[in-house]
Amino acid sequence: MFSLPAATSSRTCSLRRSLHAPPYHSLRHGEFRFHQKKKKKQYFFSLACALPFDLSPPPIDLDDPLETTAVAEAEVLEDGAENTCDDDDSLDAVDNGVAVVDLSDYGRIRVSGEDRIQFLHNQTTANFECLGEGQGCDTVFVTPTARTIDIAHAWIMKNAIMLVVSSMKRGSITEMLKKYIFFADKVEIQDITDQTSMFALLGPKSIKIMEELNLGDLVGLPYGSHKHYSVGGMPLTVAVGSIIAVEGFTFMMSPDAAKTVWKALRGQGAVPMGPSAWETLRILRGRPAPDKELTDEFNVLEAGLWRAVSLDKGCYKGQETISRLVTYDGIKQKLWGIYLSSPVEPGSVITADGKKVGKLTSFTAGTKSSKPFGLGYIKRRTASEGDSVTVGDSVVGTLVEVPFLREQLPPSKG
Hints:
The chain is an alpha+beta fold. The protein has ten helices and 17 strands. It has helices at residues 29-38, 73-76, 87-96, 116-123, 170-179, 206-212, 255-267, 275-285, 319-327, 403-406; strands at residues 99-102, 107-112, 136-142, 148-156, 160-165, 188-191, 197-202, 226-231, 234-240, 248-253, 271-273, 333-340, 349-352, 355-364, 373-379, 388-391, 395-400. α3 packs across α8. The protein is globular and about 65 Å long. This is Aminomethyltransferase folate-binding domain-containing protein. Belongs to the GcvT family.
């Protein structure tokens, strides 16, 4: 059952989805009233507000140009106080309830053309040839020597592959991909960030919201699985998983639909999360970020991104270095979470027994109930979980595994 937020309770509408019901946008008013009376047990809603999610959407992967008005992101969150929340409250919701965060600043790059699968197969670390429509994966953009540039989340659609990348790498990755298109390649690269919006729904109660919004057919599907819907005739894609290792779902939609989707999620009890809480969550969960953990100082396996790396596929950028690292056990550093006794600046040297063993790359003061926390690279053979280190001049740190990297298990030696 779909309900609008309390602020619009006088215009409440509901939807029971039916495979036999025509989409709202295809019915004239009189036809709809007739159909509603005939099928009211299957498909009921009030004309006072637009449909939330229906079964006959237009193509989200832009078979035709996406013609929408680019709504400023501030408009989605225009209600000020209603749409801001204490960082601790939103972080608590991620662990015990459900939160929603606007990630529209992340880059969205559409790769189309007949050769798109082989092209991305050669340019990134994941095996795209084994994926089909409706599936997804993480992949990493690396240099020829396997140094990390960015993690991308890829959705395999009917006529394109959608890549979600970090906001600061959106332009450089788009240009890099265009640079590697050869004369005979049938590949097109399009940055559609400004033509789309994106939210993440996070937390253990996200499943309940999905079911309430008639999106429960995604629940239980593998990470990266996605399906297409529409909001009042405007395209919407929903995918399993979030950019951070938290149970949840990712929504990509037309900017014209963003306000409706945001209100729908808020109306179901999702607590809004702001940018500072999102950055705190990223660090606490251990998700590497460009210009911090993902730089030309560190390779993809030192960053621990095993889930995004195929060791079996054919030639691709960085493969030779990755193969040598695995074959000769050449991974020299490891990314750790570090509980800290007091605040300390990123970039601070990490020492153990008086010897330099690494560098702090990210820091957060944490929450009211948690200690300061950081991420840092440490020489692999000098540290284990639970070990103590010194960060900077005198800050005491304790090494811990972080959830995002805990899910990235290297292959068994057997």
